[in-house]
Amino acid sequence: MRKTLLAVAFFVVSTRSGLGDEPPVQGPEDAACRAQARTEVFTAPNPNHLSLWDLGSQIWHSCMAAYHGAAPTQAVRNSDSKAPALRQEGGSPQPVCTSGVQRITATSKEEAMLTLYSYPSLFGVADNNGYGLKVFAFLKLAGLPFRHEHIMDASAAPRAQLPYIVDGANMVGDSNLIISYLTHHYGLTIDAGLKPGDRDMGHLVTRMLDDLYWVMSYSRWKDERFWPAFRDALRREHPELSDEHLRKAREFNAQRYYYQGIGRYAPEEAYARGTADLQVLANLVPASGFLFGPRPSSFDAAIYGFVANIYFYGIETPLKEFVSSHANLVDHCKAIHGLIG
Ligand SMILES: N[C@@H](CCC(=O)N[C@@H](CS)C(=O)NCC(=O)O)C(=O)O
Fold first, then answer.
1. Residues 221 and 317 in one domain
2. Going by C-beta distance under 8 Å and a sequence separation of 6 or more, which residues neighbour residue 286?
3. What was the pLDDT predicted at 58?
4. Do residues 336 and 209 share a domain?
5. CA-to-CA distance for 298 and 158, rounded, in angstroms?
6. For 292-334, what is each residue's pLDDT tens digit?
7. Which atom of ligand 1 is found nearest the CA of 178?
8. How far apart are the C-alpha atoms of 251 and 151, rounded to whole Å?
């Protein structure tokens, strides 16, 4: 019992403050593996019924072993994109850790710098995808210098999804894991003042935005009323996109929506889902300041990632109509936009 409490305390303390009584972080691998253990400990298979502490330690140890025992990896250029692809010598692409951080070797000084790989900009926002814009805003708000590479081919990314970062020898995918990695790796204090309840609420808001993503994406690619305006904006700002490219992307998205489920909703049903999420945001975001006070946290970056991708678009979807008619959401969006501009 005492052990379980200690284990929970370890994860709670370390997740809450990034400091607590945890021993000092011993390097990037240690930071990354701690982040991985925290992320996975509540969901990892546990056939031997280990305590949270032991399970967390096991995840940490196998992550560290993967770093130290794995064959050397090297980054190679993907001929179709500017993104580095991961290749393990003598074999097919293979991540060192199944989630969290992968180890690569930067091939140039440029690649050694923290680099965000994400989708292209649109309508004046730095990434037309909410997840990538979240990370972009986070990096700006946290004041970390980085390079931004806009790409469209996600095949080189961990899990083949954008965004991802390359930071020296580390490659991390998934917007939330990226934020967690950067916070621990660089000792960032952007969320240091948050209370435990703020972090829980922030987590729920983040997951709700993951759901809003689908409705937002549906409004662009699937709803026949808005697709032409979205297509034309993409073509205008990114003339390199061919008709064939767009046709394939639309087809691919239609499949994703179908299997995720949103594709089986009639437009008005889908927007009812999206505006219900936005209503919760409108209830939570204060009339001035940020979600948890006068200074923005990583959760404000997450809100911005999705709301800016609705508000700044010259496409009058029901989602945009909702945001535009809520002054607190508009002011929040403009405030973050101003801070990171
Ligand atoms: N959980 C991920 C989600 C990222 C995501 O859904 N990325 C999509 C955006 S469209 C993607 O890159 N999809 C490419 C594909 O599935 O091929 C995060 O938070 O970063």
1. yes
2. 328
3. 62
4. yes
5. 22
6. 999 999 999 999 999 999 999 999 999 999 999 999 999 999 9
7. 20
8. 19
Where among 69, 96, 112 does a domain terminate? 69
Q: How far, in Å, from the CA of 81 to the mean position of ligand 1?
A: 17
Query: Ligand 1 centroid vs 163 CA: distance in angstroms?
Result: 7
Q: Give distance in angstroms: CA of 274 to centre of ligand 1.
A: 18
pLDDT tens sequence across 141-158: 999 999 999 999 999 999
User: Shortest CA distance to 288 belongs to which of 338, 335, 340?
Assistant: 335
Tell me which residue range forms the domain holding 38. 2-69
pTM of the predicted protein model = 0.74
* 64 Cβ contact list (under 8 Å, min separation 6): 29, 30, 33
Q: Whose CA is nearest to atom 6 of ligand 1?
A: 161
Which sign does the torsion angle of CA 284, 290, 292, 298 carry?
A: positive
Whether 190 maps to a domain, the answer reads no
Return the pLDDT at 83: 34
Nearest CA to 84 out of 169, 145, 144, 27 is that of 169
- Whether residue 88 is predicted with pLDDT greater than 70 in this model: the reply is no
Q: Whose alpha carbon is nearest atom 15 of ligand 1?
A: 161
Instruction: Report the number of distinct structural domains present in the chain.
Output: 3
Ligand 1 pocket by Cβ (under 6 Å): 129, 131, 154, 160-163, 174-176
35, amino acid identity: A
Q: Is 88 part of a structural domain of the chain?
A: yes
Closest atom of ligand 1 to 252 CA is 17
CA 131 to ligand 1 center in whole angstroms: 7
Q: The domain that contains 83 carries what CATH number? A: 3.40.30.10
CA distance 86 to 102: 9
> Which of 138, 139, 162 maximizes ligand 1 atoms within 8 Å of its Cβ, making it the mutation to test the pocket?
162
Say if residue 107 is in the same domain as residue 40. Answer: no
Average predicted confidence (pLDDT) for the chain: 82
If you measure from the C-alpha of residue 157 to the centroid of ligand 1, how many angstroms do you get, rounded to a whole number?
10
